[in-house]
Amino acid sequence: MNLDQFKPLTVYTIYIASTPEKVWQALTSAELSRKYFSGFAVEMEQKLGGTFIVRAPDGALHISGEVFEYDPPKKLTVTWNVNWPDLVEKLGTTLVTYEIEPAGEAVRLTMSERHDRPLSDDILSGGRTGWPAILSGLKSLLETGKAPQIKMAPPAEMLAALKAMGIRTP
Amino acid sequence: MSKPRFVYVTYIETTPEKLWDALTSSEFTKQYWFGAEVRSDWKIGSPFALMLDGETTDSGAILESDPPRRLSYSFKHQKFEELRGEPISRVVFTLEPFGSLVRLTVLHDGFVEGGKYLGAVSNGWPAILSGLKSLLETGKVLAIPRVALNKGFDAK
């Protein structure tokens, strides 16, 4: 995989009153992710080349990938491939990078979603809708001890765009 | 190709009314907007100013005011020489109830291709809006250094 071909098409930055270690843990733990990520569980092997999985609340594999860059608690890159038939074949691999930096007494978390080809705003609307909800929930969980339930559904424009490309969606 | 613009969405555990107050009260903005105070009577056509340490850093006029749902103002930078030449931009706040939360969308547009202003606001808004969310949810202000606003933008 040639990293240079991957360009960030969606970037989201959020500041959190926490420590880099706690933000890293929240991003990579099934127990915590279930609380802020609509019941989805992040299951990650804590090593370079380890498996990275996101499981839907019913246990189904939603995302499968691997750990591509591993530098706790500063930087993590994973392949973030949604498990819908033909999706990766037609849209290419998705890379997600989290950068975690101290900012005063807070932490600056930047999520970059990178792709190796141009994609339409409609296709990207899934991530652009999802990331703010997921990361707003993560911030609330770390700052208040409880995460709000933010129910997300795939945006209609994304489902229509995927269908038009012949990608079947559940 | 789409015009350069910045969009940020955040979900906040509050009410649209409290969020509206937080966006339009000088006392409130001073706490999370790195000391900056908004000044306006929030009537359509009225002047808008952002003041920092007694100095106007940005100014404009109220374009839309529909409390507690939608607020927009024009926004022209006054402080830094290198940003003063940029065109008048626009900020739009949309507040939508979302279960027990409010979804806040901030759209900032009206930038020129290749300008410096978009980079500056792209760094500023996440820091300001993260502080706003913390303040409304926890009553505490995030201790982020003011330099975070200038990350990636050389304002010296």
Describe the structure.
The complex is a heterodimer of chains A (170) and B (156). By secondary structure, chain A is α+β, with helices and mostly antiparallel strands. Helix content of chain A is 32%, strand content 34%. Chain A has 5 helices and 8 strands; from the N terminus they run E-H-H-E-E-E-E-E-H-E-E-H-H. Chain A has helices at 20-28, 30-36, 87-91, 121-144, 156-164, and strands spanning 7-16, 41-44, 51-55, 61-71, 75-79, 81-82, 94-103, 106-115. In chain A, strands 1, 2, 3, 4, 5, 6, 7 and 8 form an 8-stranded antiparallel β-sheet that branches. In chain A, helix 1 (20-28) crosses helix 2, helix 2 (30-36) packs across helix 4 (121-144) and helix 4 (121-144) packs antiparallel against helix 5. The mean pLDDT of chain A is 95. By secondary structure, chain B is an alpha+beta fold. Helix content of chain B is 27%, strand content 36%. Chain B has helices at 16-24, 26-32, 81-84, 117-138, and strands at residues 5-12, 37-39, 47-52, 55-66, 70-77, 89-98, 101-109. A 7-stranded antiparallel β-sheet of chain B has the order 1-7-6-5-4-3-2. In chain B, strand 3 and strand 4 form a beta hairpin. The longest helix of chain B has 22 residues, at 117-138. The radius of gyration of chain B is 15 Å and the shape is globular. The A-B interface holds A 12-17, 103-106, 108, 121, 128-129, 132-133, 136-137, 139-140, 143-144, 148-151 and B 2, 7-13, 98-101, 123, 126-127, 130-131, 133-134, 137-138, 140, 142-145, 148.
